[in-house]
Design brief:
The chain is built from eleven helices and nine strands. By secondary structure, it is an alpha/beta fold. Strands 3-4-5-6-9 form a five-stranded mixed sheet, sandwiched between helices. α8 runs antiparallel to α9. It is globular, with a radius of gyration of 28 Å. It starts with 11 loop residues before the first helix and ends with a helix.
Length: 282
């Protein structure tokens, strides 16, 4: 038998011998509900990805996947060489006027959203004050189903900002990711939808390595995207030749990126050639 501890004289049990639940007070319950509502409303104002449940805003937690180093490198290479996107845009956007100027604008100024949800690149085609078309470009290296909710927001925001047609371009080197990203995004049951223009590794223009001589960033970009088979080794060779013109720290940085994301994947396919490249550069 357990030991019974004496109850304080002023406790409900000590006074009446039984425990009573606190009395339900509607005013306190209403006050608490209103407090939760106001808190959720404040959070909703800072997070556009919220939904309603029983009339009370409830946040739907979206996964914010941290960008990979390769993702950031590809975006930066594209941002610094928008002119080299012309063949890609001409292939992805039928009817595009030839020799149209391409301007890469700051996504922070064009799209006032939280940093994690800004588009990778915003390309203005034509005159900045009267563009012919705007392209929201996304580099997608893995499947992220939340992007089907985020991408339409990018398109609408750019359409409102630039007052012109907006296309969604997704660069997905991985074939599995490209197939997923090419699915139309349904907006409602009336048939409204957004169809991404997806460019996989097989769709991206494959330039002649000689044409990339002297264009360091374009050479590195195409090497990262295309070098998957032995036949693509000349692209890697050209990128490495261009990298050798850089000062020591920059040269080592670019070589490390290529070594990490290329050599391991195709080393077994071209062991002799890759051994030679590693001995010369790495």
């Amino acid at each position: 038998m357990g030991i019974a501890l004496p109850e304080p004289a002023d406790s409900p049990v000590g006074q009446q011998g039984t425990h009573h639940r606190p009395r339900y007070e509607p005013e306190l319950a209403t006050s608490r509900r209103e407090m939760l509502r106001q808190t959720a409303m404040t959070q909703r104002a800072a997070n556009p990805y919220a939904k309603q449940m029983d009339g009370v805003p409830v946040l739907r937690q979206l996964r914010v996947m941290p960008p990979s180093p390769l993702h950031e490198v590809l975006i930066e290479l594209l941002r610094q060489t928008p002119a080299h996107l012309a063949p890609l845009l001409a292939r992805a956007l039928p009817g595009l006027a030839p020799a149209l100027p391409v301007l890469c604008v700051d996504t922070a100024a064009s799209e006032p959203l939280v940093v994690e949800r800004r588009a990778d690149l915003v390309l203005v085609l034509g005159k900045p004050d009267e563009p012919e078309r705007v392209v929201v470009a996304e580099v997608q290296l893995s499947i992220d189903r939340d992007k089907q909710f985020v991408w339409p927001q990018h398109v609408v925001a750019m359409r409102n900002r630039w007052k012109c047609e907006v296309a969604l371009l997704v660069i997905a080197p991985d074939p599995k990711v490209a197939r997923w990203a090419s699915q139309p995004i349904l907006l409602d049951r009336l048939g409204s939808r957004i169809v991404p223009l997806v460019q996989g590794s097989g769709d991206l223009p494959r330039p002649d390595p000689a044409e990339l001589a002297g264009h360091l960033r374009a050479a590195v970009f195409h090497a990262l995207v295309h070098c998957r088979e032995p036949a693509d080794l000349p692209l890697l060779q050209q990128a490495l030749d261009d990298i050798q013109t850089l000062p020591g720290p920059d040269r080592l940085g670019y070589c490390e990126i290529l070594k990490r994301h290329i050599t391991t994947s195709i080393f077994k396919l071209a062991e002799v050639a890759m051994t030679d490249i590693q001995l010369r550069y790495f």
